[in-house]
């Protein structure tokens, strides 16, 4: 039977996979559909990556409230930035940024997913039994290689975002409404 | 600035990967502070607000 720690770690991995999927989808829209990210869009990506960092810490150093708090701060930041972008376009006639996907724009989806992350992470953080009987120091055995895979994918995502931002903005401040890569 | 935030976050993840928890924590905090500052800049500058 699965222990509560194992269930929590599986949930952490599922949340990490969801965030990675979102960030890969963002790249799909950027490269394939030529929807270049605005400064607020890039900040939302940073927020999602910060959330992923909290979950990675849980996998690497064991389940701790401080690691969940890191993920929560990242998700909260993402939701604020997304809400700010929604507020920019909420008044009719003020236009939108990018094409809608399944009826909502990407920044609205970003707000929805960050809210889901906040709720799920808070529930996971509140399960006291995962902190009992000492704190396991990270993953071991079968899930250790999975942790390395998750770290490698997050490093790849951050590095590719850096390249994308440099191609888009160079060393200058990113344009509010980018239309093409400058480099 | 955006690029700098990504650099700090990348370093934080790499430090965590190699098992250095303390530097990873500090780099994460720096990343979040920079991100919040940059977000406030994007709120206030286009609207010419003085908070």
At a glance:
The complex is a heterodimer of chains A (183) and B (51). Chain A has helices at 4-31, 39-61, 65-89, 106-125, 142-169.
Provide a descriptive summary of the structure in words.
The complex is a heterodimer of chains A (183) and B (51). Chain A is an all-alpha fold. Chain A has one domain (4-169): Up-down Bundle (Bromodomain-like). Chain A is built from 5 helices and no strands. Chain A has helices spanning 4-31, 39-61, 65-89, 106-125, 142-169. The longest helix of chain A has 28 residues, at 4-31. Chain B has one domain (2-47). Helices cover 84% and strands 0% of the residues of chain B. Chain B has 2 helices and no strands. Chain B has helices spanning 2-17, 21-47. The mean pLDDT of chain B is 87. The chains are: A mainly alpha (183), B mainly alpha (51). At the A-B interface, helix 2, helix 3 and helix 5 of A face helix 1 and helix 2 of B.
User: What is the level 1 CATH name of chain A?
Assistant: Mainly Alpha
Please tell me the CATH architecture of chain A by its name: Up-down Bundle
Average pLDDT taken over every residue of chain A? 87
Q: What structural class do the secondary elements of chain B suggest?
A: mainly alpha
What are the segments of chain A in which pLDDT stays under 50 over at least 5 consecutive residues?
Answer: none
Helix content of chain A: 55-70%
CA-based shape of chain A: globular
Parts with pLDDT < 50 across at least 5 consecutive residues of chain B: none
Structural class of chain A: mainly alpha
Rg for CA atoms of chain B: 14 Å
Assembly state (oligomeric)? heterodimer
N- and C-termini, Cα separation of chain A: 54 Å
Helical stretch tally of chain A: 5
Q: Helix segment count of chain B?
A: 2
Strand/helix succession of chain A: HHHHH
Number of domains as seen in the coordinates of chain A: 1
Mean pLDDT of chain B: 87
Biggest sheet record of chain B:
none
């Amino acid at each position: 039977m699965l222990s509560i720690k194992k269930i929590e770690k599986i949930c952490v991995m599922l949340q990490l996979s969801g965030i990675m999927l979102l960030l890969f989808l963002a790249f799909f829209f950027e490269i394939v559909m030529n929807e270049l990210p605005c400064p607020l869009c890039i900040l939302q990506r940073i927020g999602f990556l910060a959330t992923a960092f909290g979950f990675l810490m849980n996998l690497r150093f064991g389940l701790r409230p401080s690691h969940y708090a890191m993920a929560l701060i990242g998700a909260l930041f993402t939701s604020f930035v997304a809400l700010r972008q929604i507020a920019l376009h909420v008044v009719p006639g003020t236009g939108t940024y990018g094409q809608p996907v399944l009826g909502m724009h990407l920044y609205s989806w970003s707000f929805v997913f960050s809210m889901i992350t906040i709720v799920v992470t808070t529930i996971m953080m509140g399960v006291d039994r995962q902190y009992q009987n000492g704190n396991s120091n990270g993953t071991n055995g079968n899930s250790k290689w999975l942790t390395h895979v998750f770290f490698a994918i997050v490093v790849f995502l951050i590095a590719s975002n850096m390249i994308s931002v440099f191609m888009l903005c160079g060393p200058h401040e990113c344009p509010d409404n980018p239309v093409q890569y400058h480099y | 600035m955006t690029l700098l935030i990504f650099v700090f976050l990348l370093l934080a993840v790499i430090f965590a990967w190699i098992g250095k928890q303390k530097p990873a924590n500090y780099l994460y905090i720096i990343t979040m502070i920079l991100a919040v500052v940059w977000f406030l800049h994007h709120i206030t500058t286009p609207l010419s607000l003085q908070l």
